[in-house]
Records
---
Amino acid sequence: MRRLLKLLVVLTVIAAVAFTVFWFSRPADVSFEEVRAVVPNSAYSHFTDIDGVRIHYQEKGTGTPLVLIHGFTSSTYSWKDVFEPLSKSFRVITVDLKGFGFSGKPDGDYSRRAQASLVAHLLDHLKIEKAWLCGNSMGGEIALTLALLDPGRVAGLILIDSAGVDVPGSGSLAPGYLLVPVVGRVLTAVALRSDKLVRHGLEKSFYDQTKVTNERVANYYRPLQTRGGQLAALRARTQADQFPIEEDLSKIKLPTLIIWGAEDQLIPLAAGRKINSLIQDSKLVILDNCGHLAQEEMPERVVDEVTKFIAVNQSSKPI
């Protein structure tokens, strides 16, 4: 028995050393300057410190402020096809949330409430008193959270396949083992040695599989090859349900457009219908033959719906 225990201890130490070498062999974070040439809309990229975190955002256009908020394991890349068209009508700001894209990935609070606070403080930095918020998936839940915490900062909401309510059939791009302490980190790091996990997630996210290009996979995969990117994804996933908002959605009295892909495999259409029923006078637009990432799968349609909705609901008072 003693020999067996000694053997187990030795094997454990060897495994721990091997994983430590494996873990620290990858970069801590992505260098924006090294990949600037291939970053969509990089000419409009800026960096600033918000709540002690270096935040990357892109900004273009004038007039009504419109903030685009990405989903889980995504970034400003998700808005690349709508950024330019929307900037013809609005002052568009798209942000890499804490822990994602080219923003900093420190330890700390990754709850939806913390990310909503970060968005509000970015608005302060940009001297924007009130803005329209457009969020996809996790980004939609963050937009809803900010609308509940500080409705005076929000002119209206655009929710694209948004998280935030519980319905049967909802899934996640994050594997279940991510939630297992210690083991989850090890298995995730091993699984992300290749882009297979990311590619599979994108295949579930799109109805049109031709959208799952090598270029798109590479852009989603890039931050997840880093230590910081993996840990941020882990923290965002495990802290997702700290402040549930579903029971408070009926309190929202803002113009709200809900855009949903009819074939969404991650957050089914039932969630869009539920949000529509909870937010008074909200409008639900269903896109046939579309999955979870409508702004990437049907960008022209999203630009058209967003532009028309804001024009109809725009206050006569300048924002």
---
Amino acid sequence: MLKFSGILRIGFKLLVNDKAKFSALLIGITFAVFLMMQMTSIFAGILNRAYATVTNIGAAMWVMDPAVNTPTSSIPLPNYVLDAVRSMDGVSYAVPLFVGGAQVKLKDGVYQSVTVIGLDDNSLFGRPELEQGNIQDIYADNTFIVVHDAEFSKLEKPKIGTSFELNDHRGTIVGIANVSENGLNGIPTLYTTYNRAIEYIPTTRFTISYILVQPKNKDAIAGIKAQVAKLGYVAFTKEEFNKRTSDYYTFQTGIGTNILFMTVISFIVGLSISGQTFYTFILENLEKFGALKAIGAKNSELIYMILFMATVTALVGYGLGVGLVTLMITLAKIRLPNYASMITYGNLLLAFGMVVLIAAISSYIGIRKVLKIEPFDIFRG
């Protein structure tokens, strides 16, 4: 690379001295990265919230009906499945979980939809971390724990002792909890005991939404899955359940298709702007490239120069785009707590790959033009 340092320095000066073209190139790539990152970050945020229940409960394995695709669309299991799972080889313990929806009537008479999660009465496995209150108070009559998340205000910012009505039953807040992830559906979440949840909320004949399983060790997971399959049900690890949810939103709803479509459009926009601008830049500097050839510059050196110029522009534009989308997401979350968007390594790598592709195509267009020029054509003109 050292032998090309002189030619690369010339290329850098050619690039930055034409401030108008350099700015146009940066704007094109920055705008493309911003759009691609914004679209994929929104999708990542949606998926992260889609399996918030799995993340917050934290169980190692989940037993469910094979038709279940997302944590909020549970299909009740018969009680005998719980007994069977508890007796399986490799199972350390198994507890029931209830997940259901309800309407609560607040003090001012307003009705608000909520998600009610019923924890195993004996172990309270999956209980959230409390900001206020004592977890033992959940065993008192009519008691619930409310999650302090982005939807907290929809319950009129309840305090410990706040009461409400749920299906003609009185409910009292005895704890305010904090969870890892907010839910996707934009409704508040209440925790209570399993038996109270199935008593307060009308259900079908079967009441168990999921069976949470703790295997004795990792080697026991495969055996547990096989035993559960013989019962006609499925057992997923936490990661597998999250992937199932992710696949559902990606391939079986319009969300994944729409995000992919917008990401492709962003790439095409960035490629169009950058490719056209870079080609124009090369055309306007053909005389300089011809002069470099005349004084002995080789084709390989000119190729390195163009690749260097495209790479510098792409990396600077990528950095500006990532910085801009990070700033926007941060400001949006400050003003809109329920804003679902997050930057992941996958987002960054995808955007970087597309930027590299934009730089490669732009370079190819410029290289073809430069390699065709002859020094005598420049001086003859």
---
Amino acid sequence: MSEPALEIESLSLSIRGQSILSDVSARIGAGETWSIIGANGAGKSTLLKCLMRIHTGWTGHVRLHGQSVADLSQRELARRIAYVPQPGGDQRFPYTVREFVRMGRFAWSGPFGTAHPGDADAIESAMKRADVEVFSDRALGTLSGGERQKVFIAAALAQGSDMLMLDEPTAFLDYRHQAEVAEIVHALNVENGATILSVTHDVNAAMLTGGHALALRGGEVVWTGPTGELACERILGLIFGATFRFLDDPVTGLRLVAPQGARTPS
């Protein structure tokens, strides 16, 4: 494993006396891709929000390149980690695409919100990379869910961080937009060496992404390892408490996963 970009040690969170995360530990190498997987309610999104300090009150230790996140201001944290929230919901943003992407530069602004010399280049580069230039002057609320998700990613890219955390980035998106989002994130990892943490409940998506997986069940880590090892009845049963069938993909050579009740087309 490469040098750790992120170390999570015994992270636990309780809300109103209910344990949400319990003793979560992981060591994420710089430039690695990790999928955080598990069933609905396993604590995946909550873990990301703890790492971003959206949720507070957790116990344990989190270190970013060896430095405790507790010692970082929110602005310093935003310079190092970019966060893309889950798509969907009743999100109303009275901004154009360019205005929204510009907000991703807040961590670099000077006193009283003055512009940073690198803002213009960072904004243009982020919009180009996320392929949202064509509707840069449109209101965010006029875009489709897939288009809007690419704008959220552009805003995250504009932050200039070397770590990207995504919460179900392709949920509710059609297949074309799922592929586009996956390509953007993959290129950021391969070309820029960015460290990627992505929440998903889709085992096939995690295996196709590659890299490593951290599996949660009931707020606890039940398995970690290379995503290629996920196509195993024992491991998936441990993570999801269900039974599965396996289908060989002739293109990728991977064993893809289907619920036991799924039918094979005749």
---
Amino acid sequence: MARLAQTAGLTELQIEILRTVKDFVDREIIPHATELEHKDEFPEAIVEGMKEMGLFGLTISEEYGGLGESLLTYALVVEQIARGWMSISGVINTHFIVAYMINQHGTDEQKQRLLPKLATGEIRGAFSMSEPECGSDVAAIKSRAIADGDDFVLNGQKMWLTNAARAGVVATLVKDDVGGDSVYKNMTTFLVEKEPGFGETRPGLTIPGKIDKMGYKGVDTTEAVFAGYRIGADMVLGTAPGKGFAQMMDGVEVGRVNVAARACGISIRAFELAVEYAQQRRAFGKPIAEHQAIAFKLAEMATKVEAAHLMMVNAARLKDSGERNDVEAGMAKLIASEYCAEVTQDSFRIHGGYGYSKEYEIERLMREAPFLLIGEGTSEIQKTIISRGLLREYRSRG
């Protein structure tokens, strides 16, 4: 058993789930990831394997056909999957967020109709908040929902949707015309149901095509264009308009723990590759691991892996306990993504010229790690969230 990134206090079921996932990653993902990634090919066989394992229903309660596991279990599973290939964790990330949001905020009818299908992977979930002219500035979104009788009509363009082409339901945040006393109280989350595929998947909803990316390949990243898309009021998440911002932020906290977990997974893999290569590669008559410059680098990498893992676990456990974890999730996402970039680059340097070759796995990790500095809010956004939370807690009494 590896020494790094171990988690104390897990149940026997959690340990068994993680052991099963790790074996699956070692057997079914790592041997095929680089080839699939270079081809930008969706991993159909791997996804089917995850369906059979029940991973799409990992956090969905048993009442709806899921496993009913905690956010911590989810995060540790994501960490292992990202260790194999970060894109695979992307296949289930937005799915988990949507399932979480429906479970936390949906009506009984929405839960009963959607969660059993999400649990089996029969339908997939996608998450839509960003737009072409706004990312973390959620108040600046322009897409709108106008009430029309018992329906709403949606217009606007959404950006950076992971899984949108393959999703059956997309949790979509838009401004509404209900009118609140704050910009954050006139936003609504709609559960937009659609057919998988590109083009006009429903009247008024178009998924134009895949966005070509530097890394994070294999998984689809797309836009969504709403042009007179009509949707029933019963597809408002929770049915009460104007609560979308708070619902989305709840989901984003889960997403930030997920991104931290993904960063931990890539860091673990980058370290594994580096420590193995450093013991095999010889220079000046001995393995390079025996040179102090490399040995110290390995020590620093391992320490960063451990620190990031512990902060990610803490953020997940806080969320599971029902406590507010915006600061801790921001801290975990910040340190895990920054350390991931550093650990991956150190592994790349240890590989020397071979690290630049597409034959070596570290080349892929070098293109995947930067995404985590941006996804679910940049490091600068995390610092804003953290500092605001700290100033709230440590308000001056002077």
